[in-house]
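Subject: two folds for Thursday's group meeting

Dear M.,

Sorry for the delay on this. The cluster queue was jammed most of the week, so I only got both jobs back this morning. I'm pasting them in the order they finished. Each block is the input sequence followed by the predicted structure tokens. Could you check whether the formatting survives your parser before we put anything on slides? The first protein is the one we discussed after the seminar.
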Amino acid sequence: MSLTSLAVPREERFFEDYVPGAVYEFAETVTLSEEDITAFSRQYDPQYFHTDPVRAADSIYKGLIASGAHTISATFRLFVPNFLPGKASCGSPGLDEVRWLKPVRPGDVLRLRLTIVDAMPSRSRSDRGTVAFFAETINQKDEVVMSFKGLNIFLKRNA
């Protein structure tokens, strides 16, 4: 796997800057603390192994783990400023095959790796195209803890 950097600054990126086969691994990280995990989960996913460290110790996870919704939110905290263009982003039609592969625990440091799978010009709108990518959220042990496939629509540079 060859890692590439997005040489074009975020505000100047367009559809043409996302080349199939390119792999990006960003230096920015997110660390989830016990307080982060329990606060998020109390509000959005109140299962005991996300909210109660004492009870979680007796669960199948043998300790507190982050909600999958929290993990994907943390991933998007890395995805948006590092991968999406500032002005040329037109949103996403969706994500596929979201997989939580390993538990995320308090103190885990997460980073993001993205592989461009395809870049398809729109057949109906000549000013844009769709970029297909594969995303992996990786912890400090180099373990992939979550993955998903996604699509984003980006404007073309000179349209």
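Second protein, same layout:
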Amino acid sequence: MSNEGAKTVVRLRDRIGESASRFLGQWGVFFRGFIDEPRMVGSIIPSSRFTIASMLAPVDWSRCDLFVEYGPGVGTFCLPVLEKMKGNARLIAIDTNPLYVDYLNRTIADSRFTAVLGSAEDVEEIVHLAGHEHADYILSGLPFSTLPGGVGEEIMAATHRILRPGGAFMAYQFTAAVRDLMRTRFNRIDSGFEFWNVLPCKLFWGWKD
């Protein structure tokens, strides 16, 4: 494809994304983010309420001072997490897409919440800059099966280091690729399956000793 042809495709993609954002609201923003970075978005459709409930069920909210989410998208998990968190706890959402980060910071009016533009690989620096020594729970919807080579391993290593003992890394995925990465760091991994999601997804919880 010529340079001019490639530019035309990009312009068309941007127009489609902007139109979707305008007419479909939250769903439009989610769809546009998928168009911008398809390899970094796990699904074109936000997770179901059944997936949210199942994924968060093992969390001990009384022992949660800092909850971190990788790849929050338009905040499908953010509001349920904030509803369950203590009044003095914090939620940090990390995303590489400025569209999502801007949307979340504009629409979630909760002083306990911050959306940060960055990579999950840098979670240790992000947590420390926020004034915390560790995270209690880390949730991820990142598509580990499509991440660039070596990125998944770096994320998993940083995640394990920043979690407190007894904390958990939690992931919902369409494949089991993340489980193999989790096994390199976590001795105990619980698993589940949520049928009522588009598409049905696998659930994993890795507990730090």
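Two things I noticed about the second structure. Residues 49-207 form a domain with the Rossmann fold fold (CATH 3.40.50.150). The chain has two domains: 3-36, 49-207.

Cheers,
T.
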